[in-house]
UniProtKB/TrEMBL annotation:
Protein name listed in UniProt: MAGUK p55 subfamily member 7
The species this protein was found in: Coilia grayii
Keywords: SH3 domain
Domain L27 per the UniProt entry, residue ranges: 73-129
Keyword presence, Nucleus: no
Superkingdom assignment: Eukaryota
Amino acid sequence: MDESENSNFLQDTLMGSTLHLLIRVYERLLRFGAQRPKPIQDSAVCLAGEVNAPWRLGAGGWIVLGQGLVERGSRAVLRSWLGFELAIELKQSHASPEAAELCYLLSKPHIKSLLSVHDSVAQKAYDPELPPLPDNICDEEEDSVKIVRLVKKEQPLAFVRVLFHYDPEDDPAIPCKLAGLAFKRGDVLEIVCQEDELWWQARHHGTNSQAGLIPSRELQERRVTLQKPEALFRPQRSLRHGPEDADYGAITGIHIAGLRKSFRLSRQNSESRQSRWRKFKRLHPGPIPTYLEVVPYHRGPADPHRLVLMFGPSGVGLSELKRRLLLSDPELFSVTIPHTSRKRRRQEKEGVEYHFVSRHTFEKDILNHKFIEYGEHGGNYYGTSLESVQKVLAECKVCLLDVEPQTVEKLYTREFKPYVVFVKPPPIERLRLSRRKTKVISSTDERTQTKTLMEEDFEDMIASGQAMESQYGHLVEEVIVNDDLAVAFTELRSGLRRIEQEIQWIPADWAQD
């Protein structure tokens, strides 16, 4: 068959009515299957036998049909197993053509076989059956037998982002390690069943893998309350300063100073479990991070961009990453213009480097909660206003904010739908190699003096990064390890492209009307 014959054959097939009818049948089957139909009844064979039974005129003017009585001249409606209705008119001495045709069809062997198969399927139970537990099993015995049952219930799935790492191989409490589901913080899971108090059933979203056991929210919260808090580390001594402006960069040092006090590690090994829990609750107000219910989200053409929040320890390279993003696409990325109470210098312009306001006005704005971050340095106030963030987003640009971790919690709202990036340092061995000649602005002089990073600065960077990730990691959607600046920038830029192009998972509270 040459090419022209193949083309004609394909065209005839596509234009033929048979293919169109098959497609329509296929579409009907898909629609019917999505409804999860259940059989109307499971005795089609018996019903067919009653319909085929001889009928006669009984005493009193009643029609005898099988074992049932139908009043003469009435209309009997038979609901078949296919769900359609067939009306059969019964008369005194003879059946209608429709009734005769129905009796003829029901007498055919293949119809009888079909009805028999239907009854067999309808009467069969498909739920898994497990043998009953022996009566002599005791839960407190170490060698007791534990049976794990994984059953998918007919209930809507709930999607969650997990806020902690889990490996069933390291969990001595799981009933069966082989039935466990491992995951990493940030993964999205489909919750299949939540009926058990301690163990839920879930699977990774977007995969065809079978469901596995994961700790329930209640179980995980119990475990966290009994563990010693890991969010306490030695204080950070260095200040984080950016290359843009020395006096504004010093603000972050003011905030970090308050952060250090809450990150001190108590070395008293004699602490009671109760006192450790009280300390943990002071550092972790609100619910313990376990599972966050999420929903898919894609930004519409008229919606503002998601606010990009970046945080990390001093010296990790936040300011340089932000600067490179701005240079890579100034039409897309932008930053806020900070406020200050200091006097404007000769080369500065209002609304370009800063918004210059009086000290009285600044303090009034503080009382009115207009700043998301602020501090005092060198006798002057500096801060980022909420209005400046909203202005960037109103210009249909991505607002880049380099903030302290506690500020992330303030902005973690439905209005901004922030995409939170944590920039963490590499291991200390890599820091010594990559940052040994790095200089940062010193806090002793706001304009000119710099200092070279020392060993204690590297240790502080590692400790502070671990503390931040432990306490605020549940808010993070992307973690960037800044070992090589070019590689870190590429990873960050790729992540920001994804939130513009792909469907994201956001907290369910952000999507509610």
